[in-house]
Amino acid sequence: MKSENMIPRRSFLKTAAGTAGFLLAAPHVVRAQEAFPTKGLKIGLIGCGGRGLGAIRNALDADSDTVVWALADAFQERVDFVAILVKEQYGGRMQAEPSRRFVGLDAYQKLLAEPVDVVLLCTPPAFRPLHLAAAVAANKHLYVEKPIAVDVPGVLSVMESARAAKNRNLVILDGFCWRYDDANKAARTWLQEGKLGRVLSFDGLYYTTPPKSPLALDSRPPQESDVSWALRNWTAWYWLSGGQFVEQVIHTIDGMMWSMEDRPPLAAFGSGGRAQRTDDGDVWDHYDVHFEYDHDVIGHISCRQWVGCHSEISDRTFCEQGILATPYRPHIQSAKRWRYRGEKTNMYANTHVAFYKYLRNGEWVQTLEQAATKTLVAIMGRNAALSGRRISWDDIQKDSQVLVPENLTMDTTLPPAKIPVPGRG
Fold this sequence. Notes:
By secondary structure, the protein is an alpha/beta fold. The protein contains 14 helices and 17 strands. Strand 5, helix 5 (128-137) and strand 6 (141-144) form a beta-alpha-beta unit. Helix 2 crosses helix 12 (347-361), helix 5 packs parallel to helix 6 (152-167) and helix 11 (250-259) packs across helix 13 (368-387). The model is unreliable at 1-7 and 14-20 (pLDDT under 50).
């Protein structure tokens, strides 16, 4: 792909950062002048990996009057795979003809030029700010996977896109799916109604295996470019994924902020390292981070992606009168014990059901500012661990480091990985 097809990232981010700022905002809700009560909706998918395939299925299941109109990805085989699978499972609702299956780093631009009503942004998060700005400018309603950026300038640009989306009455929902889980919403009412008293601390564990197995060093084809190889192994690179603490553990960040009334922490400090990974990327495979809140309230998150070890994903909110345990099998440990007994639902599906309900009813909701704040908290925790420093909320908002290479093409030569070492640099 020619470089002139790409927006220079640093120039783009500099423009966005000049007008953006961080807000602690509730979801933006207004009534629209136009709703889509009966219109068939055309969907475009940008990013045809595993999460993209899951999102397109959720979208088609959530609203029976939707069709897949266009697909975009960096790789032809991913576009073809999604097209074939959706055709097999949904028949005539797969309407992305070969002429509307776009490939390359500029594929998003071609998709956005199509008459699609809804766009699903499911690429690696490095590209989220750029794709968001272009999609908002093209007046598209959006489902946006988390996280929304990998660095602070990227978060700033998303904040600017959020403001532009408000002015256009665009429906934008993010991928923080636990917020749409019925069991977690029911459990959280105990906090919201004050039944457990004041929150004293939060403890989150995210002990799991790598969600995508690192590619073996000797499996790289001789002719494959640096960028193509990195994209196929995107979770191994900070510039593409943000690392585990930003890309995956942001769900635990969301849980912590939900317990803290969506307030960001005052500061963060932590540690971590790289114990098992042997790939040619630069991400750590474990972190341990403390977040400071006012009134001596602490949030603690420990995570790792290790093979052959104990696995556990759990959040515990310690309160004056009991403990709230989430997100799996939510329950309350207190003088009056409680466990969710309702019907189990699919949080991914629920997110898309809510999205199309808003569209059909003309209730225009966007949660980008909340998603941006959560992403910034995750970046603050990650950077604190990588540097070994205590980083305050004010400090992180001033961070200007851009992780994504400028004017990126498939032929860009990438520098060798430099694994972060705390206390250096």
